[in-house]
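Hey all, quick one. A colleague (J.T.) asked me to put the nicotinamide-adenine-dinucleotide job into the tracker so the inputs and the structure tokens live in one place instead of scattered across chat threads. No bug as far as I know, just bookkeeping. Sequence used:
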Amino acid sequence: MDPSHSTADVSVVGLGRVGLPLALSFADRGLRVIGIDNDAARLEAVRDGRMPFAETGAQELLERVHSSPAHPLSLSERVADAAGARHIVITLGTPSFSHIEIDMRDIRSALDDLLGVLAPGHSLILRSTVAPGTTEFVAGYLAKHRSFEVGEDVFVAHAPERIAAGRFLEEIDTLPCIVGGVGARSGEVAAQLFGVFAAPIVQTTPVQAELAKIWTNILRYATFALPNLLMMDCERYDANVFEVIDLINRDYPRGGMAQPGFTAGTCLRKDFAFSEERSAAPGMLLAVSRVNESVPLFLLEGARRRLGSLANRRVAVLGLAFKADTDDERDSLAHKLVRLLERELADVAVHDPHVPTPTASLEEALDGAELVVVAANHSEFRDAHALATIAERAGGDCLVVDPWNCWGAGQVFAYASELVLLLDATRPKTRG
Ligand SMILES: NC(=O)c1ccc[n+]([C@@H]2O[C@H](COP(=O)([O-])OP(=O)(O)OC[C@H]3O[C@@H](n4cnc5c(N)ncnc54)[C@H](O)[C@@H]3O)[C@@H](O)[C@H]2O)c1
């Protein structure tokens, strides 16, 4: 379709955790948006005005967009319909094969659907996280199959998403928007689109945009591997990881050590692999990944050292999501922990107040538990009431494993009664 006759301003292909809030945000800024997804249930939810997943403020935004008299959002299952807008933003998933290689099947499939309908004037913007070189590959694919001059006839750019889940609506207007365009004008065209948001736009080359996104996540992944490895070292030396971290950080002016925890999720677990595809130092980031991936086993083995065999013992796992206060369970290490515990023949009960997977109530999960593992540091678990419930329902001699230091007691492994005493000792005293 000739983009000068477009009925919409922008198409967003893939209405997932990145694409749907983005499509709604464009619509909220007055753009006419085509939202495309091949998941019929997802489209039905959006049509009905229901967010298919949790994202702060997104339900209200969806309702606002729905009730707008301008009807700024239309929906389709067909990727080819994206050509009804001048700008096409790709927000499809980009997982990683176990071969340490990006899995581009969704992007390739969308490109093939678009090939026949693209026309001069269209812009194709990759918002998905991609391996270095992918944006140039996409441009080359269009040039090869349609003989377009990219940067003159059609425009291809990478504008990576760096927003944290739960902060989309705030960060879309504040985080600098990196744009790497192919050829003469692609960057400028992509910037016209993303200029509807208040965030500054930073122009660069496609490969630098790709590297900046991947290494933003690698930095986080490695940052959390260090305290996780330190936690394992401290167990070996019978030291307290929280005290060592405090010693490192206290009044020290040159950076600081992060806190341990479960470090995973769909982005952190795979984005480093896109760099590893052609790494000059293969192994370094694989080691980072191995540290983070071994945290569930480390905690399980620590529990076994203290309790003996876990077979037929009741274990409560608190939290299934990959991080605090999200309903996203993808690539969560909590699931890995549950699998490992089940392989020990433990009787596992799970409680998570956020995720779509049905779980037991907190009380049901805790009743009779000899071991409690806090796998996600949801805010519900971080208050003293949650600890009191553990002590009451599971009993004072239940072993509590808390790599997050949820209650400030500073113990990865401690019995519930010890934690209650530690918490009482640190609580500010009130005058009677
Ligand atoms: N989730 C995050 O917090 C986050 C943050 C930054 C970057 N990213 C990156 O953004 C991209 C998207 O991530 P996501 O979490 O939104 O993924 P997602 O899986 O939630 O969303 C992808 C959507 O695309 C749809 N889809 C798949 N194949 C399709 C096809 N052929 N045609 C039409 N629709 C199709 C799926 O049904 C799904 O709704 C990934 O590259 C990811 O690495 C994600």
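Adding what we noticed when we looked at it: The longest helix spans residues 206-237. The mean pLDDT is 96.
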